[in-house]
Amino acid sequence: MTRQIRLNAFDMNCVVHQSPGLWTHPACRADTYNTLEYWTGLARTLERGKFDAIFLADVLGIYDVYQHAPRAALEGAVQVPVNDPMMLVPAMAMVTEHLGFGVTATLSYEHPYPFARRMSTLDHLTRGRIGWNIVTGYLNSAAKGMGMARQQGHDTRYEIAEDYMQVVYKLWEGSWEDGAVLRDRTTGRFADPDRIHRVAHDGPYFQLSAIHLAEPSPQRTPVLFQAGASTRGRQFAADHAECVFINGPSKQVIAPIVADIRRRAAAAGRDPRAITIFTMMTVITDTTPEAARDKYAEYRAYASEQGGLTLMSGWTGIDFAALPPDQPIRYGDHDAMTSALEAFTIADPSRSWTPREIGAHAAIGGRSPVIVGSPTEVADALQAWVDETDVDGFNLAYVVTPGTFVDFVDLVVPELQRRGAFKTDYAPGTLREKLTGPGHARLPESHPAARVRPGG
Ligand SMILES: Cc1cc2nc3c(=O)[nH]c(=O)nc-3n(C[C@H](O)[C@H](O)[C@H](O)COP(=O)(O)O)c2cc1C
Hints:
The chain is α/β, with parallel strands linked by helices and 456 residues long. The protein has one domain (6-158, 223-452): Alpha-Beta Barrel (TIM Barrel). The chain is 37% helix and 15% strand. It is globular. The protein contains 15 helices and 13 strands. The strands form three sheets. An eight-stranded parallel β-barrel has the order 1-2-3-4-9-10-11-13, surrounded by seven helices. Flavin mononucleotide (FMN) binds at residues 57-59, 104, 106, 135-138, 227-230, 233, 245-247, 280, 337-339.
């Protein structure tokens, strides 16, 4: 039985996402990120390609670690300016029927009470197609923007995340009972107050006594994505996530992370196969192998290696401008995204990376691998990744947008479908049902969120 591959398009509400410099390529429309037409057009393309979701990254700070200044990021538009990803969802939902929306939102800087309402609102408006990518952040500039001297310590951010999840679970799953909403025009009773509960929480970081503002939405709890692959991050994923997003330059780096997350999920009493794991991938394809390689060579001419190092400095908390360019980098404790540094150091001791090599690598496709080839070469490579690393699918980043996605939809999707490795049509229902099967609009009883349900 050929394993079915899951596919999300990876984008961000900004000019430069994972391929600095390429926004200047004549075919790239990334600088129209601030128009609805860009997003509705992209959403239609992805639904035509039967993509599972569009997955939107987000940061609440600026990449000012490189050269200890924001200059390189501002000049190269490296994830700044960056608009709010949530604002894009209703417009994309309006022009699609099945495409899911995975939205990144850091839980380190916003109280869960208003956040829970916003996600419920999006779940209503999309008829249950919303997912939340849970992140704790990695930029001190975000903390400074929120009035703090610096961000919380790496693992403390996850302790805060644990407390946060308990609050949002209580609001989404524990406040309004099923059947509480009556919409009875005869009696004028919209809801039955006896079936709506004030939830209380008195945690180490969050306190609350409130009724959830929104009536139950199709999924109640959005599909829970998570991104953060440090040891602490993997445990958080194993305890909470339905979908996990990981990233690294090779199978040697990715395969052990996948195995560890599944092992931890089993230890937490969850079905390890119930977690859908996506790794980031960048694909450059064309009708022939030669044309694809020519396209790659052409893109390289636009790629900004300084932009690549600006990203890498932000991700790791290390100023790569201050490092000797041809000396292999070493692992060291930093409070940023631990897994980003592990991926280029201790995660694969057989491969050392110098700043110069990392700049070149990250200039196209960030930390992910880049597959260049014809549709059959790309399909072979993706299926090999699934077989050899046990990932379930890919968050596909773009080099030029929407071109990279259009190429993939027109050329690779039909090849994967021909091989029986990708769906030819969407399953009905909510995003959770599309990912886990009919009748599963809500989180399963085996998920920790179920414990806060009335009578739970
Ligand atoms: C593949 C991947 C994608 C991520 N995307 C984002 C993002 O879009 N925004 C963000 O603030 N953090 C993102 N993070 C990082 C998370 O904020 C994470 O909670 C934190 O940096 C700690 O990461 P670690 O557990 O990998 O050390 C991402 C992490 C990974 C591994």
